[in-house]
Amino acid sequence: MFLLNPDIFAENIGWRIGFFIGPVLGLGVIFLRRHIPESPRWLMTHGREKEAEETVDDIEARVEREGGELTPVDDSLAITVKATESIPFRQIAHVLLRQYPKRTLVGATMMITQSFLYNAIFFTYALVLQNFYGTSPSSTQYFFFPFAIGNLLGPLVLRHLFDVWGRRKMIFLTYGIAGVVLAVSAVLFHAGTLNAATQTIFWCVSFFFASAGASSAYLTVSEIFPLELRSQAISYFFALGQIAGAGAPLLYGVLIGDGSDRGPLTVGYFIGAGVMIIGGIVALIFGVDAERKSLETVTAPLSLVTTDDKR
Q1: Please, where in the chain does CATH 1.20.1250.20 lie?
Q2: pTM of whole model > 0.90?
Q3: In DSSP terms, which residues pair with 304 in a beta bridge?
Q4: pLDDT digits (tens, 9 = 90+) for 109-142
Q5: Cα three-residue angle 201-204-205, rounded to 5 degrees
Q6: CB 181 within 8 A of CB 198
Q7: pLDDT at residue 197 tops 90
Q8: 88-297: which CATH topology?
Q9: What residue stretch is flagged as signal peptide (predicted)?
Q10: Read out DSSP for 150-213?
Q11: CA distance 75 to 81
Q12: Residue 177's pLDDT band (cuts 50, 70, 90)
């Protein structure tokens, strides 16, 4: 609101300053990252066993101080891992495309579908409000606040259910509800029964669920592949989702046009709804039940030392 006020900044300056907020936040994340401890698994696979043990001891002591109970782990579940260097891209491609193709399909589908819908709606948000509902540029910005709040509340309110009911089922449910709500809003939008406020409410409800599902999708992608590839896997799928989602604002911008015809954008909303529903169905059918399981149980580490290796 401050940067886009033409009384303070020229129109061609304020939004550019806003863009620079992103890199500033990035610098802050780099500084913050230096103070976040490495995971015990990462330390172990990089030959820093002592630090890994100290980290686990600290976590266990903290849990016990807070009244938590730690169930002893059976010795039969113990595994041996070896320190590994960086994983070559050829091996990464083998894991993603040959060893776990279904999991790759799930990861790619979840990231592409949620990115497509989010970019399609968010980056044309103001255009729809102004071209179809006649909001002024000075008032349109206020409609972004409830949208942001809905995106934040979804993961906060529903997060527990992803561990209780399971990520696979909850992703299907949240993606599906988001798609259905968007489809209903498309029907009402085409009928001309919505105004700026009610349209925003539908978007908020849709993204309340979509944001929760997308948040779980990020976690899912990083936990269904070998632990040595967790960070790389999520980076690949995130990049794939962003590339696929980049075309959504362009497509929907064309569908919006000058606001004289609601038909094309209605079709676009149905497409977005269908995309999300498909993403949920793929997660339900091909997803992996990983909640409340150790990463090693979900997927064997690449650094695992087998009986043959020990010989």
Answers
A1: 88-297
A2: no
A3: 81
A4: 999 999 999 999 999 989 999 999 999 877 888 9
A5: 90
A6: no
A7: yes
A8: Growth Hormone; Chain: A; (1.20.1250)
A9: none
A10: HHHHHHHHHHHHHHHT-HHHHHHHHHHHHHHHHHHHHHHHHHT---HHHHHHHHHHHHHHHHHH
A11: 15
A12: very high
Q: Give every CB contact of residue 296 below 8 A, 6+ residues apart in sequence.
A: 79, 227, 304
Q: How far apart are CA 22 and CA 3, in angstroms?
A: 14
| pLDDT tens per residue across span 208-266 | 999 999 999 888 888 899 988 888 888 999 999 999 889 999 999 999 998 889 999 99
Distance CA 82, CA 90 (A): 20
Q: Alpha-carbon torsion 232, 233, 234, 240, what sign?
A: positive
Type of residue numbered 50: K
Average pLDDT of the segment spanning 35-57: 87
* HSE-CB of 216 using CA atoms within 13 angstroms: 35
What is the residue-wise DSSP string for the chain? Answer: --TT-TTTS-HHHHHHHHHTHHHHHHHHHHHHHTTSPPPHHHHHHTT-HHHHHHHHHHHHHHHHHTT---PPPPGGG---B----PPPHHHHHIIIIII-HHHHHHHHHHHHHHHHHHHHHHTTHHHHHHHHH---HHHHGGGHHHHHHHHHHHHHHHHHHHHHT-HHHHHHHHHHHHHHHHHHHHHHHHHT---HHHHHHHHHHHHHHHHHHHHHHHHHHHHSS-GGGHHHHHHHHHHHHHHHHTHHHHHHHHHHTTSS-SHHHHHHHHHHHHHHHHHHHHHHHH----TTS-HHHHS--TTB--HHHH-
Taking the C-alpha atoms of residue 208 and residue 149, their distance in angstroms, rounded to an integer, is: 9
- Looking at the chain, how many residues does it have? 311
CA–CA distance, 125 with 146 (Å, rounded to integer): 12
